[in-house]
Structures are given as structure tokens and as C-alpha cells.
Amino acid sequence: MQKFLSPENRTALDVVNIVAGLGLALSPWYLGFTAESAATWNAAIVGLAVALIAAGTFFAFHQAEEIANFVLGLWAVIAPWALGYTAASAATLAHVVGGLVVAIVAAGSLWLSTRRPYSAA
């Protein structure tokens, strides 16, 4: 029996990505790392991009949107090291946790939307 992601379940995953994106975008202000300009700009841009892409899937689902969110999630995870703000522990934590949530949800949505069976056995 093949199980796949229904539109109702896909909506729930998109809501999780919207919340994670907005959380990342607002994290410089509620976690207090606005003095780190690279971290602040990266969080705001990546977070808003994730939220907007996830909101776009309410109108039409395309795998490219989930791939984009997956890539943005991975970027958020590696950005503290790539942009050099690992000393700001709040910024690093926000980016790693937010990025992992976005990447995992996007990967799960991609996997489940392809109508693959859960197990071949």
C-alpha cells in the first residue's frame, strides 16, 4: 500500500516552516544579537525567504519550493561558520536550530510528496 502526503498534512508542514522562518527572522531582536550585523541580516533574509516560500505553497505546491527551503535551511546551519559569527552563541543556536527544523521539514515534505511507499518489505 502506498502512503503519501495529503494536502492537509502538507499544509501542516508548511505552517511549521512559516513559523520556523518567522522565528529565525525575528530571532536577532528577541535573542539580542542585533549587534552582530552579519548574523542579524542573515537571520532576517533567510527567515523571511523561508516564510514567504512556505506561504507560497498554499497557492500551488511545487517541489522546487521545498528544495529551496531545504537549501535555505542548510545555509542557515552552516552560516555561523561561513560568515564568522560563531562567537555569538545566541545567533549560532538560532541559526542551527532554525535551519535544522526548516531542512528536516522540507526534506520530509519532499520525501512524502513523491508517493513512495514507506517500506518495500
Structural features, described:
There is one protein chain. The protein is mainly α and 121 residues long. It has one domain. The chain has four helices and no strands. It has helices spanning 7-30, 37-56, 63-83, 89-113. α1 (7-30) runs antiparallel to α2 and α2 (37-56) packs parallel to α4 (89-113).
Keywords:
121 residues, mainly alpha, 4 helices, elongated
Structural class: mainly alpha
Unreliable spans:
none
What integer is the average pLDDT? 87
Number of domains: 1
Instruction: Count up the helices.
Output: 4
TL;DR of this structure?
The protein is mainly α. It is built from four helices and no strands.
List the helices and strands and how they pair.
Blueprint: H1 7-30, H2 37-56, H3 63-83, H4 89-113
